[in-house]
Amino acid sequence: MHLASLPPDPERAQAGWEANLALKFARRGARTSLVERHHLGPLKVQRPFYPEGDVCHLYLLHPPGGLVGGDRLRIEVEVEEGASAMLTTPGAAKLYRSLGPEAEQHQILRVRDGALEWLPQESILFPGANALLHTQIDLSGTARFIGWEIQCLGLPANGERFETGRADLQLSVDRDGMPLLRDRLRIQRAGDLDGPSGLRGMPVVGTLIATGADDRTLDLAREAATSDDHTLLGITRIDDLLVARALGQATDRVRAKLTAVWASIRPSLLGRPATLPRIWAT
């Protein structure tokens, strides 16, 4: 597997870290194995776990613990035919205040007639951050995917809004080269956090997507979805793509809502009961 990297930029190299991680999963006998792993810079993985017997559970590690202006991270994941993997992180990703340069994180997830669950913990954008977060999901054939993105804009527990800084949050899903979803949220000024057609003043935004959905899947997800005064949740289906969106005041509440949706649809979409990553309990 080729470890791709973003084009070198001498000025950016002086401004921050560049780190790349490329992973490839394939079916080997009775279970999925991590058959290729390449990394450059501070991006690594723990050893695989198999709490379900055949599904490969893997935890992504970024030892610095956060990104500053000028840092660039690139994560590439490839899942081959018949393979099943679940990826998550041990804690939240942090994007710190920038003096000007943009911090970038690019995630390219390719699933070839296999199954991938992408369940990272939230990204926290500190006030004053300048961040580009881009996730691209490329599916082929009968590939199945369930995953989410959760972003916290500011530090709500400290009463700090994301009133300074910039955020460009991008999510795309393709199957066999055809677009299924294009999603983009740009925050350029404090007013972008408010308004009935925006974030309604809520600092946490989450999106869950799942492929292979039908009316029954939609019913299961809606039965599991509950809204309250602190968290809003809406679910829809576009062809076979289930999309759940959440707005909330706290990351743990948003993550709990999306986890409930994931747990409700996993048995029907992947044929497996919900098995939480062990790292979440530590």
UniProtKB/TrEMBL annotation:
What's the chief localization of this chain? Answer: cytoplasm
Pfam families, alphabetized: UreD
| InterPro entries named in the record | UreD
Which superkingdom? Bacteria
Keywords on record: Chaperone, Cytoplasm, Nickel insertion
Gene Ontology molecular function, alphabetical: nickel cation binding
Compartment list: Cytoplasm
**One Gene Ontology term, aspect cellular component:** cytoplasm
Q: Which HAMAP family match?
A: UreD
Task: Tell me the subunit arrangement.
Answer: UreD, UreF and UreG form a complex that acts as a GTP-hydrolysis-dependent molecular chaperone, activating the urease apoprotein by helping to assemble the nickel containing metallocenter of UreC. The UreE protein probably delivers the nickel.
Concerning its family, UniProt says: Belongs to the UreD family.
State what this protein does.
Required for maturation of urease via the functional incorporation of the urease nickel metallocenter.
- Output this protein's name: Urease accessory protein UreD
Q: Which organism is it from?
A: Thiorhodococcus minor
